[in-house]
Specification:
single chain, 275 residues, seven-stranded antiparallel β-sheet, mainly beta, eight-stranded antiparallel β-sheet
Amino acid sequence: MSGSDLTTALAQLSVSLTESAAGLGQLAVDVTAVADAIASGSSPEPPKPPVGRYPTDVIPEFTRWTTMTTTGTEGDPDNDFYIGEDVPDVYYVGSDGGVVFDCDPNGVHSGGSKYPRVENRMQSEKPATWNPKSAWSSGGDHRLSAELSIDTSGLSGRKRGNALQIHDGGDDVCQIMKHETNGLGLMHSDGKKWESIDPNYKDGQRFACEIQAVKNKIIVLYNGVKKVEISKTGSGWYWKAGAYVQSGGASSYPEPEGARYRVTIYSLTTTGGAF
């Protein structure tokens, strides 16, 4: 080895040793922080989401969707665009980077339902625009693709909740639902019909879901596999996504204080437009 090669090798070794020492120093700081927390009887703080990350940063689609929450007044919950902001402990980015819809089943609910919700509604074609409201017909081609998880473990009155919906001007058309005995499925026909998707679905399990409303049919793909195909016609349809609990509120399934229903959405896109 020449003198110049030896000099280069020694320089590289010096850089590597310096980087390793820095890494060990940071590790020592982390270990010390954990030890101090344990000694004081507290738990180390959980990881926090990146600073400045809001739901619309994670899912830009939501700049065109309004968010109804469990806060406000009974019969008239807070409902607005939340662009570049969140609602602490209600609608926020979780530590794993997903958008959390954290629904208190004892929160306020709208006049048209007995159940509370933290749920987004596709509102219009442009960001932060209330009118004209999204409305499309079954004869077109509209699709929603999402990656999400559903968690009913924080409920005890009835472990049931919706996560994705097609709605119309008066009522729901169909919902992706976690059911207390039937697992994951598609509920439709005003709650009278159930199409099984995954009877063994576990709370918090992350999955991919695509809903296709194409030429008077609704098709559901679960992790890329077609699980549901039904005929359905109508107009005035629009998308909804979030945590719409099916207990608590003014229902006959009361929930204790502190109960929660959570849906986390990691990605969501739609095609076909708002009309």
